Automatic annotation (TrEMBL):
<comment type="function">
    <text>Converts the aldose L-fucose into the corresponding ketose L-fuculose.</text>
</comment>
<dbReference type="Pfam" id="PF02952">
    <property type="entry name" value="Fucose_iso_C"/>
</dbReference>
<keyword id="KW-0963">Cytoplasm</keyword>
<keyword id="KW-0119">Carbohydrate metabolism</keyword>
<dbReference type="InterPro" id="IPR012888">
    <property type="entry name" value="Fucose_iso_N1"/>
</dbReference>
<feature type="active site" description="Proton acceptor">
    <location>
        <position position="360"/>
    </location>
</feature>
<dbReference type="Pfam" id="PF07882">
    <property type="entry name" value="Fucose_iso_N2"/>
</dbReference>
<dbReference type="GO" id="GO:0008790">
    <property type="term" value="F:arabinose isomerase activity"/>
</dbReference>
<keyword id="KW-0294">Fucose metabolism</keyword>
<dbReference type="InterPro" id="IPR012889">
    <property type="entry name" value="Fucose_isomerase_N2"/>
</dbReference>
<dbReference type="InterPro" id="IPR038391">
    <property type="entry name" value="Fucose_iso_dom1_sf"/>
</dbReference>
<keyword id="KW-0479">Metal-binding</keyword>
<dbReference type="InterPro" id="IPR038393">
    <property type="entry name" value="Fuc_iso_dom3_sf"/>
</dbReference>
<protein>
    <recommendedName>
        <fullName>L-fucose isomerase</fullName>
        <ecNumber>5.3.1.25</ecNumber>
    </recommendedName>
</protein>
<dbReference type="Pfam" id="PF07881">
    <property type="entry name" value="Fucose_iso_N1"/>
</dbReference>
<keyword id="KW-0413">Isomerase</keyword>
<dbReference type="GO" id="GO:0042355">
    <property type="term" value="P:L-fucose catabolic process"/>
</dbReference>
Amino acid sequence: MTTHYPKIGIRPTIDGRRRGVRESLEVQTMGMAERVAAFLQENLRYPDGSPVECVIADSTIGGVKEASAAQAKFSGANVGVSITVTPCWCYGSETMDMDAGIPHAVWGFNGTERPGAVYLAAVLSAYAQKGIPAFGIYGEDVQDSGSEEIPADVQAKLLRFAKSALAVALMKGNSYLSMGSVSMGIAGSIVNDQFFQEYLGMRNEYIDMSEFVRRFEEGIYDQEEFARALQWTKENCQIGPDNNPAHLQVSSEEKAVQLETCVKMALIGRDLMIGNPVLAELGFEEEAQGHNALAAGFQGQRQWTDHFPNGDFMETILNSSFDWNGKRAPYILATENDSLNGVTMLFNYLLTNTAQIFADVRTYWSPAAVKRVTGYELQGEAACGLLHLINSGSAALDGAGEQTRDGQPVIKPFWEITDEEVDATLKATQFRAASQEYFRGGGFSTDYLTKGGMPVTMARLNLVKGLGPVLQLAEGYTVELPEEVHRTLDERTDPTWPTTWFAPILTGSGSFSSVYDVMNNWGANHGAISYGHIGADLITLASMLRIPVSMHNVEAARIFRPRVWSLFGTESLEAADYRACQSFGPLY
């Protein structure tokens, strides 16, 4: 993927009237822009850990000529997000940013000396009339005209908008790489290029899985790195017990060969996504380019896995925040080429800069069922029941929960992870011989148990004929069960796969009346699980992309959408969201 990251453009707009009016506001207005830029640069980071960059217009904007000059500067500076700030009245349609292809927000200073709030209302009306949804930011409390504070509620909205808008900008122009085609009839792996193009601004790239075989046989990978990666894997990745019946187990020599293949797959999968200059040195200039993929999916089952080792090791390692080269940003790679879950993982990742858990939404365990099977009575967050999230594929190693902050388990951006946390994660994980019933070609599945007590958000994007994309999400907590209880429940399915016990937060209504209702209303077999309660950020991001949200348990006070959404109704926010998304249509 490209690392020429998009920037945030800051537009200070001003009352254009001269002879004392504009002149008296210049310092205050430009000061607002500078403080917003400093605040965002201090609090937001790009996926590589570097601070977000802001570009401020060369002058305050009092009319259409200065608005045009700002637009020209932004176009040359790769600005993908627009934030307008002002403490005063300005001429709305003359000073507004008219770029319909990027997200917009306006902060109108709440002060009584000059009517910034009046401009805010006027310009948001202009945005609505011109079909460019914009977010309105208006502090709850009146500030003194000389205040240089960004109030806490304004800070929260600036961050929510900017994080989501940067996610939109980061996706634009990049690719989703489909490695193979449709896995076992899973609809999410029927890659819909129209969705990627029109809603995300992304390209679609495709390879056949035979490309892996070609690169195996022709040596199209970094041989030196392969030797280093294999050594690291042998020293750090514990091979767990083989759960296969004796007649299906293979020799240790054959397992060693399979492990080598799995490590090569990880190298090749990464190179296919982002390229590798070493390949050019080997004479493979075309392959060195990669596919500029911000996300990808690997079909695997069954045409590959009936003959070759499965993709579990590749998917797990690439999705994690470290490998044999040390700590680094995760690569988003969906198992079974479930592109819709891959996109959901991408949403989560771009909002948090953290690795993601890909899982089946496998089983709802009611309190009664748990007690019947184990004799244990569920307690705490799990008192109303649990969802068993488990899949052989691309659950990042970070999902074990061995990273900590203030003594609590977390999943961190890679630049915050310590060497000790990497070691603890690897020690908490086993790589188990893949089930020969499912994976005739062998391979290794990741096996860990997610620590309890982490706030997480499970999300999923679905496509509906006649409607388009729909997002659903559930905030909740990971749960730690007594060891014997976990083992009893886990062994009823495949115990060689990573398990996350998840308890969604219930609201008492709709899809969140019970844990059963959450499971019963989930739109597909997979979910993407991110650290943190990021549901409000996902809702903001979805509104920018014009994707309605069908179910969520986020409090109304945290929801932040373009101001024009309220003109589609204020009583039933879910219905208004659907109408607004349908009216404005896909972003691109």
